[in-house]
């Protein structure tokens, strides 16, 4: 197929869009609404996934070292734990740092601890260990328990189990919702483009009777489907971006008024909207091609 033929098909496809303004508007609107709903769900799922990751990254284990543990023994424990894949951060807190933190938390009553500094400090040296995922907690605890220098391990089994359960539930539920909505939107967009083709079935029949080949008739409709899908995708992404920008602005106001919760921070608009734009363009264009090709097939059988 030469360049002149492609130019004719593309020009004819755009002419069909402009000539059938009512059906074009209806098709673009239906595609836009369908992809808008899908885009909103993708935004929600993306932010929920980040929130879950934030919760997982806050899964901590605190270990207390035995009194009299030497510097070399502490370094051995620290290096050993650092080498584990399940651990992404380990922080050492000396007994002096722990005492200072305790005094600060007590506020004015911190003066009661003045006599416990130096050798009288009853607090042990400790490590705060951050785990990659909640399901790794039991494995890490089991390994730490075998270390001679460790006196006590402090963590919440219930919290670890809940975070793990919640993370899996959110991801499974989010994936199912996206898949179901994607299928529904494909059906809606496909049916809309089929109606556009059906409204011009007489035009197709006339072209067929005067000797036009199937692909001569088919290509302008395919190009038209691609263009309608892309226009709907761009409009829907613009609407989703507007709604998401409003949510970001409102979340900033809530943070100022009620305080800030890091795990509920919304993702930057650019980081969210670029993938959604790509998904919307691919879905819109591909469905436009498939719907146009399938819909026109039966009208070509004359």
Strand line-up of the largest beta sheet? 2-3-1-4
Order of secondary-structure elements: HHEHEHEHEHHHH
Give a count of the beta strands, DSSP E runs of length 2 or more.
Answer: 4
Mean of residue pLDDT? 78
Shape designation: elongated
Which structural class matches the secondary elements?
A: alpha+beta
Number of domains: 2
Distance between the termini: 25 Å
Range of strand content: 5-15%
Mind telling me the C-alpha Rg? 31 Å
Counting copies of identical and different chains, the oligomeric state is: single chain
Which consecutive residue ranges, at least 5 long each, have pLDDT under 50? Answer: 253-263
Query: Sheet with the most strands?
Result: 4 strands, antiparallel
Instruction: Give the helix proportion (percent range).
Output: over 70%
The number of helices is 9
What does this protein structure show overall?
The structure is a single chain. The model is unreliable at 253-263 (pLDDT under 50). The chain has 302 residues and is an alpha+beta fold. Helix 6 packs parallel to helix 9. It is elongated and about 105 Å long. The protein contains nine helices and four strands, in the order H-H-E-H-E-H-E-H-E-H-H-H-H. It has a four-stranded antiparallel beta sheet. It folds into two domains: 3-55 and 163-299, no CATH class; 60-132, Alpha-Beta Plaits, CATH 3.30.70.3040.
């Amino acid at each position: 197929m030469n360049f002149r033929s492609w130019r004719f098909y593309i020009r004819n496809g755009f002419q069909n869009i402009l000539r059938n303004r009512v059906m074009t508007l209806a098709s673009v609107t239906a595609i836009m609404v369908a992809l808008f709903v899908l885009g909103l769900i993708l935004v929600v799922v993306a932010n929920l996934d980040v929130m879950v990751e934030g919760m997982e990254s806050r899964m901590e284990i605190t270990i207390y070292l035995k009194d009299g543990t030497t510097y070399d023994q502490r370094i051995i424990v620290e290096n050993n734990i650092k080498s584990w894949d399940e651990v992404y951060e380990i922080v050492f807190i000396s007994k002096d740092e722990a005492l200072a933190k305790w005094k600060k938390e007590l506020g004015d009553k911190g003066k009661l601890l003045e006599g416990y500094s130096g050798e009288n400090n009853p607090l042990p040296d400790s490590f705060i260990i951050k785990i990659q995922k909640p399901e790794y907690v039991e494995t890490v605890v089991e390994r730490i328990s075998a270390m001679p220098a460790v006196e006590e391990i402090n963590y919440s089994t219930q919290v670890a189990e809940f975070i793990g359960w919640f993370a899996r539930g959110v991801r499974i539920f989010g994936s199912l919702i996206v898949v179901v909505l994607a299928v529904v939107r494909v059906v809606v967009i496909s049916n809309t483009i089929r109606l556009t083709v059906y409204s011009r079935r007489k035009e197709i029949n006339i072209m067929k009777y005067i000797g036009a080949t199937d692909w001569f008739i088919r290509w302008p409709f395919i190009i038209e489907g691609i263009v309608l899908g892309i226009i709907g995708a761009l409009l829907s992404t613009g609407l989703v971006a507007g709604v998401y920008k409003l949510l970001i602005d409102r979340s900033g106001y809530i943070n100022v008024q009620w305080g800030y919760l890091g795990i509920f921070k919304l993702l930057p608009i650019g980081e969210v909207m670029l993938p959604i734009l790509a998904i919307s363009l691919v879905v819109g264009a591909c469905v436009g091609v498939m719907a146009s090709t399938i819909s026109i097939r039966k009208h070509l059988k004359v």
